[in-house]
Amino acid sequence: MSLRLTPDMPAGAYEFLRITEPFKAWKLLSFKSMAARVCRAHGFDLKTRSSAGHTQF
Length: 57
Prior knowledge:
Layout (H helix, E strand, L loop, with lengths): L7 H11 L39
């Protein structure tokens, strides 16, 4: 199963966190002033190992 992300989804999640405690006190940049992209992680198996090869528990 995969999660189909649109650019608005991570932007909204980041903005939500940015305006809530404790992140609000950090005075993070707005998402619009950052460069970000959504990419596909090849070879990721949630049941056994991450893409970096670390075992998931």
